[in-house]
Design goal:
mainly alpha; Serine Threonine Protein Phosphatase 5, Tetratricopeptide repeat
Length: 279
């Protein structure tokens, strides 16, 4: 079964990279990279499914961040690389990006910050994607501690954490905990405007867990209810017709097909292709 996998900085005080070629006692001039422009261009590449272009883009700006001693910018790029290599199924590069991102957290003294929670979540999601749910849960627990202790954690960050953590819990057979975590994710994401795609993913993931826990025959009624709720969300006209939504539709379609919703799966796949074609 091709199950659905869901698929997001503080002030920085470190004066220069410890590997800087500046002389001893000399503070390198920091030249920040344009973070918003980097992200906007990356979104363009991903919307067109130009993965080679996206990787070149990230590599270029990583080098620029290093030349400019911009560790905060480099951390942003490493987090994006973790997600990119997860989506493109490049395990070795994803794990290299995780190691670099975690090292940057230490150098920047960001451990315990919201940024560290996001980095741990990205690392965990990649580990889960590459078949290591036990390591994923270690990172998820670190992220959960950071997010839940902070009064400034946005609901979408908590919702994403809970949703992805539930996948790892289910992968190690902790089904009741996984369902509880999915419900926590839904509670958080309902506070977020435009969160229909994420909530749809959560419902589909819950359907998968109920099948694993109870078997298809016993869980059939619950599964169909969850699929209907997911479909209603994906058909909501308020969903943004962008590259991310196209990606969600593309990833959700196989789950609907698996459970016999063949027409819905075909329509979702066609809508995804239409959005990509317009990009």
């Amino acid at each position: 079964m091709d199950k659905n996998k869901p698929i997001k900085a503080e002030d920085y005080a470190e004066p220069c990279c410890p590997l800087s070629m500046e002389g001893f006692g000399v503070t390198a001039e920091i030249k920040p990279v344009p973070q918003k422009r980097i992200m906007d261009k990356l979104d363009e590449y991903m919307a067109k499914r130009d993965y080679a272009g996206a990787e070149r883009h990230l590599n270029y700006w990583q080098a620029e961040a290093e030349l400019g001693s911009d560790l905060r910018g480099k951390l942003l790029i490493m987090n994006e690389k973790i997600g990119f290599y997860r989506k493109t199924n490049q395990k070795e590069k994803a794990y290299e990006s995780i190691d670099l991102a975690l090292e940057l957290l230490k150098v920047l003294d960001y451990e315990g910050s919201i940024t560290s929670g996001t980095t741990y979540t990205n690392a965990a999601t990649a580990c889960q994607n590459f078949g290591d749910p036990q390591q994923a849960l270690i990172y998820f627990q670190r992220a959960r501690k950071v997010y839940e202790l902070s009064e400034h954690t946005a609901p979408d960050l908590l919702g994403g954490l809970y949703n992805n953590m539930a996948i790892s819990l289910a992968a190690v057979g902790r089904y009741d905990e996984a369902i509880a975590m999915y419900n926590k994710a839904l509670c958080e994401m309902e506070k977020v405007q435009g969160s229909e795609p994420e909530r749809a993913i959560t419902y589909l993931n819950m359907a998968n867990v109920f099948e694993e826990q109870l078997g298809l025959e016993e869980a059939e009624s619950t599964i169909f209810d969850l699929l209907d709720m997911a479909l209603d969300l994906l058909e909501n006209p308020s969903c943004p017709q962008d590259g991310y939504f196209a990606f969600v539709l593309e990833k959700c379609a196989p789950t609907f097909s698996y459970y016999g919703y063949f027409k819905a799966a075909e329509e979702l796949a066609a809508r995804s292709e239409a959005i990509y074609a317009r990009a």
